[in-house]
Amino acid sequence: MEKIAQLLGERGVSFVLESSNSLFEHVIPKTIIWLMKYIQYDDCNSLLRFLRSDVVLMGSEDLKRVAKSWELRAGSWELPAPMDVIYEIYERYHSCEEIDILFNNPVVLAYEIVTKFRYASVFDNETDIKNLHLFMSAVSDFLNDPLGYTADLDGFIRFADDCREKKNKKQSTTNEKNAVQLLTIHKSKGLDFDTVFVYFDSTKVNASRSVIELDYLIDKENYSRISHCFLTMNYKCILRELFPDEFQEIEQKRAIEEINNLYVAMTRAKTNMGVFWVYKEKDLVEEKNLKCKITRNAKEIAEAKPERYMMVSHIMYENKSNRKGCNYSAFSYYKLGLFWS
Questions:
Q1: How many Å apart are CA 61 and CA 58, to the nearest integer?
Q2: What is the distance between the alpha carbons of residues 331 and 239, in angstroms, rounded to a whole number?
Q3: Same structural domain, 115 and 239
Q4: What is the pLDDT of residues 216-253, one digit of tens each?
């Protein structure tokens, strides 16, 4: 969906991307917390990430100078301009002067960072501004109720890191009425729209070698218990050999989930529905998985009645090659009712 959002943005099409990410994964809070970590922990890595971000966009040579200066703990900072501001904030935060005691407050520090580095100018679209306000509210709410953390900068940083890992405090999105809404199938449940476009990619079926897969089966005699649990990473072939019956049941379970997801996607449209199918010709011939079987059936129906399901004004066929030389094809149909005809 991020790729679709990028393409819509490049073409000036308004869109709403419903984010499931934590507020603290957004670029604004993330960069502010990087600088906070440097100020609190003297963490050079966080400082360099902040300087390399869109807030400063410091070049590689200047970054090397900053890293070298930090490593040598140089007394004089003959460094790029932004470092003067950062050094001033750092000194005020660690000052023992009574006038700077309030500066230890995370709200004041966050406001100082946002103001000094002109966040509202660097990130000026509606969604970014909303998330900036959400972040400032989150800092203020934290001080009123630190939720078991210490009510200081160290406590807030630990709170923000935990929220990011647990994906708490969701990001905000724009509320434009005429914008294209980008939703996952799961988030579209219970909703309906006049026109819906579904992106169905049958090429994305194999999990990465680095992904751990968890499968389980419910005890059919006692549904409150799990009868089998399998934790694997690229060892499906072994699972198939050692537990053939359980493996088949797991595959059937996944197929049912896939069909249910597709049913949800295909029943969101009230008037018009367009589906964009992406596949590899070889996979359709072999029918290597359920997605390929569904795509092949849809392709045959669309080709049998092109006047009904394949409109010339929309994308018809497209062939592309990826870096590995595999040919990918795509077709689309546009009209409601393919799976009900």
A1: 8
A2: 35
A3: no
A4: 888 888 877 888 888 887 777 888 888 888 888 888 88
Given a cut of 90, whether residue 159 has pLDDT beyond it is yes
3-class secondary-structure state, position 64? helix
Read off the amino acid at residue 176. Answer: E
**Average pLDDT for the chain:** 78
Q: What is the pLDDT at residue 335? A: 39
Phi-psi region of 148 (alpha: psi -120 to 50; beta: other; left: phi over 0): left
- pTM for this prediction: 0.53
Report phi then psi at 133, rounded to 5: -65, -40
- 34 in Cβ contact with 60 (< 8 Å): no
The amino acid at 177: K
Locate 275 and state its tokens.
């589906």
Interatomic CA distance for residues 129 and 194, integer angstroms: 30
* Residues pairing with 320 in the sheet: 328
Residues 102 and 218 in one domain: no
Kindly state whether residues 43 and 153 are assigned to the same domain: yes
CB 26 within 8 A of CB 131: yes
Measured CA to CA, the distance from residue 195 to residue 178 in angstroms comes to 12
Q: What is the pLDDT of residue 329?
A: 45
Is 7 buried (19+), middle (13-18) or exposed (0-12) by CB count in 10 A? exposed
Residue ending a domain, choose from 166, 192, 223:
166
- Token representation of residue 304: 């049998």
Q: Could you tell me if 142 and 194 lie in one domain?
A: no
Domain that holds residue 206: 183-340
Instruction: Please indicate, yes or no, whether residues 187 and 162 belong to a single structural domain of this protein.
Output: no
Spatial distance between the Cα atoms of 237 and 247, rounded to a whole number of angstroms = 10
Beta carbons within 10 angstroms of residue 83's beta carbon: 20
